[in-house]
Specification:
EC 2.1.1.193; rRNA (uridine-N3-)-methyltransferase activity; elongated; Alpha/beta knot; S-adenosyl-L-methionine; tRNA_m1G_MTases_N; Ribosomal Protein L25, Chain P; five-stranded mixed sheet; methyltransferase
Length: about 240
């Protein structure tokens, strides 16, 4: 059954698909009145719904049974140095499929690409599309890019398990760090750009309470490292 995003505020009065969601139903899927769909609000709620009528930009709904849904645990924040090309699009998509809670794009010393206007909105649209496709009912927050220095300055007080993927020789095996923290309910994962973090950035992360983790002897591409770490966190704690 097709899934559509209906913002939380639209559930209470006259629930209606509008904009891109209405056009997807009416133009792409050729939906008709009486057709059943699934709606979700991005905050963990989903329900069955019926289209009452159909126009290009306006699809009124009758909301049916609200279905049980649960956000994946632990809650994971991904702090991701923006990689080259379209790899950030891939990272956003796969992160949503792996139940990410929030994504903070970062500009580091070795970041090659400088995010232009509209990038954040594009990543948010990617996250929404991934939620619709994979059945994730919680829409991750995708923040506007920050410099590493500005972001890390607030992290010393951040709660939960804090991890930085690192090529440093004193980085600990990822598995051993996870096994030392059973029952983790919130984790922040910091992944660097092509060329890794600088020594100063790595030290700043360590000073803020991040554990340096090794992902093995093979040097992974940025997008592979991110997906590997998220999958490992899900495997260990969920």
């Amino acid at each position: 059954m097709a899934r559509f995003f209906l913002p939380p505020g639209a559930w209470l009065t006259e629930p209606t698909l509008v904009g891109d969601e209405a056009r997807h139903f009416s133009q792409v899927l050729r939906g008709r009145a009486g057709e059943k769909i699934i709606i979700f609000d991005g905050e963990g709620r989903r329900a069955s719904a019926e289209a009452l009528s159909v126009s290009r930009d306006h699809v009124p709904l009758k909301i049916g049974e609200i279905l049980p849904s649960r956000s994946p645990m632990p809650a994971i924040t991904l702090a991701q140095a923006i990689p080259k090309g379209k790899n950030m699009d891939l990272i956003v998509q796969k992160s949503v499929e792996l139940g990410i809670t929030a994504i903070q794009p970062l500009v580091t010393r070795n970041t090659i690409v400088q995010p232009g206007d509209g990038k954040s909105e594009k990543w948010r649209r990617n996250a929404l599309e991934a939620c619709k496709q994979c059945g994730q009912d919680t829409l991750p927050q995708v923040a506007d890019p920050l410099t590493f220095e500005r972001w890390i300055s607030d992290q010393a007080a951040a709660p939960g398990l804090k991890l930085i993927a690192s090529l440093a020789p004193d980085a600990r095996p990822f598995r051993s760090v996870l096994r030392d923290h059973p029952g983790t309910t919130h984790a922040t994962l910091l992944v660097g750009p092509e060329g890794d973090f600088t020594a100063e950035e790595t030290q700043a992360a360590s000073d803020a309470g991040f554990f340096k983790i090794s992902l093995g002897e093979i040097v992974l591409r940025v997008e592979t490292a991110t997906i590997f770490c998220l999958a490992a966190l899900r495997y260990e704690f969920q």
